Amino acid sequence: MSETPQIDTPVERAPDVGELTPPDRTLMGPGPSDVHPRVLRAMSTPLVGHLDPSFVEIMDEVQELLRYAFRTDNRWTIPVSGTGSASMEAAIGNLVEPGETMLVPTNGYFGGRMKSMAERAGGEVAEVDAPWGEPLDPVDVERAFDEHQPDVFGFVHAETSTGVLQPNVPELTDIAHAHDALVIADTVTSLGGVELRVDEWDVDVAYSGPQKCLSCPPGASPLTLNDRAMDKVLDRKKEPRSWYLDLSLLEGYWGDDRSYHHTAPITNVYALREALRLVAEEGIEARWDRHRSIAGDLKEGLQNLGLEMNAPDEYWLPSLNAVRVPDGVDDGAVIEYLLDEYDLEIAAGLGDLAGDVWRIGCMGHSARPKNVEFLLAALEDALAEQGYDA
């Protein structure tokens, strides 16, 4: 019997990995956006324990700042430890009980993700249809409620895949509440960038991500629930399938008791606090105005290059501009050229719009005139390389 040959495996030797030197990109895609230097500095400050009295004070401050950004007085306003998908799953996984029905939209990629999460939570899913690139029509929402009588209704306020901003939010929430349903809003690409009024619009639950209009690294993701929604969470007949995202347990850590549940991402909470301080210093309404103004310049410049926006003007989402790829132009080649030649990031389309649009963000610290001027000049060059005459 022959002996097994000895192989020098990677496990047996230390990896030779050099110093971390990522490229210095200008981030103008759908997220992450450029991070403000003050936020980066906050992340370099000393760690403390996640139950340290000083950190508890920081937790309180983050919650107050989040309430300001969401425009809410909701007591249950927290950053979920994880990316925006974690706050999304916390919302859906806690509000949708097995056997209940959730109504979700079909007008974008993230409505499809709502569907997947609701099904994994044990719920039944009904859909309200609208074409990709258009908002939900309240008439269609009303019809879907009459047909399916859902327990929970989810909609995407700012659809990152299509560049569409959902109007008439109070009308949608009125329909849902008239049918005794709870409302979950995806505000991942709107919080801190476009008008959002959780209390005034009567939204029961809103989740978001920190890496878009808040210009904060991912890792601690905003979530807010009103008392009606939290009562349902606390009165569930069956525990949520996720222990980690069980809001009845997280309430013990972020509520009055501050009891141990998990080790929070302390550095990310520092970062979120500083990002939210920047929002408060600028003023939330002034911040909405800045995004619309700077993105308006971007939109005008794109149209001057002969490019067409995917969303009509009345549904245009300033923080995420979906731009139609011209005939004869390779969308991926343009993206690669911008990255290689300019260290500039934009992104391709998702789902039904893959290959048909570019997604250009104008969010948070990235929403600055110099970034818009840089992007337009670089994009004109990239298009010329493709033989496109602007």
TrEMBL record:
Keyword Cell division set for record: no
Family per record: Belongs to the class-V pyridoxal-phosphate-dependent aminotransferase family.
Transferase is among the record's keywords: yes
Domain Aminotransferase class V residues, every copy: 49-349
Name of protein: Pyridoxal-phosphate-dependent aminotransferase family protein
One GO molecular-function entry: transaminase activity
Origin: domain of life: Archaea
Source organism per UniProt: Halorubrum trueperi
